[in-house]
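Lab manual, section 2.4: Encoding a predicted structure.

Procedure: take the sequence of the chain (457 residues), apply the prediction step described in section 2.3, and record the output as structure tokens. A sample record is shown.
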Amino acid sequence: MEIVLIRYLSFTNLSIVTEFPISLTHLLAITALIIAVVCFTFRSNPVYLVDFSCYLPPDSLRVPTANFIEHCEASNIFDQECIDFQAKILERSGIGFESCMPIAVHEIPPNNSFYKAQEETETVLSTIVKDLLSKHNINPKSIDILVSNCSLFCPTPSLTSMIINKFGFRSNVKSFSLGGMGCSAGMLSISLVKDLLKVHKNSVALVLSMEAITPNGYIGKVKSMLMANILFRMGGAAILLSNRKQDKHKAKYKLQNLVRTHLGSDDQAYQSVFQQPDESGKVGVSLSRELLHVAAKALRTNISELGPLVLPYSEQLQYGWSVIKQKIWFSASQKGTYVPNFKKAFEHFCIHAGGKAVIDAIEDNLRLHKEDAEASRMTLYRFGNTSSSSLWYELSYLEAKGRVKKGDRVWQIAFGSGFKCNSAVWKCISDLDPDLRNSWSDRIHLYPVEIPKVCDH
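Recorded output:
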């Protein structure tokens, strides 16, 4: 063996070997050192979630169902058929009386001007940034990376520029504003920061996730576009991330996995959530009838990549064996492909609160229990669909309930236009205090509530 190695090194013109023969022990030591250096160089950098903050709108901005309908009638924008349709969908949406709309939408008629949209975004983002930074006594100049995502409102200067200007960030802060990426943009922002933290050592990143409601109300008659008026509500979240060693002891979570899925090459998926003008030129976001089917397909694709990373081998083997049986011994009596038990991989689930039907479908497809989707349902009930920030309201709910313990794993599942399904897995690395103030603290004792079921007449 020693002779072979020496000959190999001589062949690569390392003439020093022939002059000073190296023992096999030395060669093994050098090899081990090289492997250690390579592993150190390419090791995965930790991404710590230090903390996050969700926007809590004032009660004066609440939109109970009766107020919503009364406002539609008083604004004289919709005909009676459109009002009745929105009322019917709202009753079945799973959204309660506490969800909020920005002040401009409360005006009669609603004021969807650029100025009011800018006012909404500044109110939400400024509030959550101030809350998060002050909670940890962080100087804005210590932020190295700033990423914002807002799908339907992309002003110039950008939303990140707005925050940089208001809080006085450094001139060399690395800022990015993501637009047009739908409700899953929050996870995309986390993915971007994860990649940036691989390159920029000892850095702190701030992610801002929200959707602007003010400029995006639809005033036409197409039912698939009226759906967005009912589901989307005011909200936002600020997330503080770091790869610094000194932040590990105060961080809440550590990022374990992040898997992104994009089905944009499929026409049905691409058009399932689509912003466009109707025949009369009124712009809205259309939610197609195929949306649930597309979401299920995207989720299957996503977990086919995520599963091997998180599931125990016993679950992977059962799944693989069921696939083999289906292909070899397929029969009508067979139950189909085995659905892995994801409760063996995760203690908590945060499913995007896109609507009651979405939560129900994911719960059924993953064979979860009712309590596994409780955070999602309660978030939808109290805050509505706040787009990319909804997952953080759900995690806030779990924390306020005192359910997240050190060592627990949380699976965040986000869906968005494109069509996209993105997953993030976090591991809790601290003992969390449920009494610390968050967006649920004021009335967490009132939840969960029983959401009334509405039967078709």
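Check your result against the sample. The longest helix spans residues 114-135.
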